[in-house]
C-alpha cells in the first residue's frame, strides 16, 4: 500500500511514465506467469463463490431487510483522509459540480522554445471531450464550460529553469505558478472562472509530461480579487493521453486516485478498480465514474440510492449506470422478450449485449485511432470546431485584448467546513422499485413473482414527487450495504452505454468503499466475482477485473462478508432485477 498523500501540496493523481501499451504489456507478462503454460485464463463456470444457475424466487427468506428510501444510514462519514469517500457532508474547500462551471485554459510558452502547436490545437486535445464526459456522467446535471485563451502567453524564464518533473521541488513549483499567474493576469480576468488550467508548451525542452497534476495550495494565489486554491498544471504531449484532463478535473471536485502506485515504481497500477472508474485509469474500457462518486458529487437523487440494512433479503431494480434520462439501455428489446422463460431471456440478453459491446469496442478503437492524427489536420479541425461553437469559448474573458491580438512577448503561432448534503437524512417516501420485506408466499404483499425470473417493477409512467417519471434513466443506480463505521459495499449495474461504450463484461459490479482511506490508498476496491478468470486481454488495463461483474443468472457471495447478490433478470425498460441478502 502506498503512503497516504498529504492533504496539501502537490498531488500527482494521474500516472505518467507508462504509456497504455507499455503498461498493459508489462501487466500481461506478469499475469501470464500466473496461468498455466502462459495461457490466459478465460472466464469459466468454476469461478469461486459464483454459481451459474437459473434463479427462481421461490425460497423463503429468514427475515425482512430494510431498504431505506433515503441513504442516510449508508452515507459514510467524511474523514480527514485526503479526498475522503465520505458522503455525509461536502468539503467546502472544493467546488461541487452541481451547476455550470467555467474553466480558463492559459497557454504558456517559454523563451527557450518556439511552440510547434497552436492554442486551438491544444484546446481541441481536451475539449469538448472533457466536457462531454462530465455531461454524460452527470446525466446532464453538470456542464463544464471551457474558455481557452487564443494565444500563447510567454513565461519570463526558460522552461528548463523550473526543473519540471513528477515529484516537483516545492520551490521550483511555486516559482512556476507565481510566474504563470503574473504573466497571465495582465490578460485574463481570473475572477470569472471556477477552474484554472495552466497548459505548457508540450515541445519546450524542460517540460515533462509526467508532471501533469492538480496542485493544492496551503496559501492560495490571489488575482483579480479572487483566491485561487488549486491549479491544474498541464504538461501533456500533443496529442495527450485520452481523458487525462477529465481525470485531473475529478480531483478539483474532491475525487481521489483509485489506482495503486507501487512504491518501487514496478508492478501493476490497476489492481484496485481496473477499468471501472476514470479515477483509476483514464484508459479503462468502462471509465464512467462509480455511482458512489455520482452520489458524492450530487448527481443522484435520494431515491436513486437504496440503503440495504439488517438481516434478510431485499429485491430491487437497478438501472445501468450509463443510462440517462435521454438514453435507452442496450438489450432492452431482448429483455422484453424474455417472458418465454428465464433461460431464453438470459441468452437473448447476453447475445444482444455482446453485439452491442463489440460494436462499441470497435467504435472506441476507431476513435482512439483518430485521436492520433497529425497535428496539421488536428489544427484545422480544432479551429473549425472552436469556430462552430462546440461548447468552447475562445478568449471570452480577455482583459481588453482583441481576440486576434498578439502578445509582444509571445513566441510561436497565434480542509473545508462541513456542508450537509440534501437527501441523506430523513425517512421520506417509499423507494420505487424496492421490496423492503420480500417474503415470497400467499401472504406476501405485492404481486407474486415466484418462479418468473422477473420482478414486477413499477411502470415507466409511475410518477415521482417532483413530477418526473421513475425509470428511463431516473431509477435506482446504487445499492449500499454498510459493513462498518467507515466502510460499505456498493452495487451498481455496468453495461454498454454512456461513458461505458466499450465495457468488456456487463452485470452487477460490487466494490468496497472505505471513507478513511486516502487518495491512492485504496478507498475503493472492486470485488471480483470471477477471481480465477480474465477477459479482454488485449484491451483491458487489468484483465483479471475486466469480468468482475456478477452476470445475468449468477449469484455471488462477497468474500469476508455475509452478503450475497443474485442477478435475477431484466425488465422490459432495461433495468436489472437484483436480490441482496445479508445476515
From TrEMBL:
InterPro entries noted in UniProt: Peptidase_M6-like_domain (IPR008757)
Organism: Streptomyces siamensis
Polar residues composition-biased segments: 436-452
Name this protein carries in UniProt: M6 family metalloprotease domain-containing protein
Stretches for region Disordered: 402-469
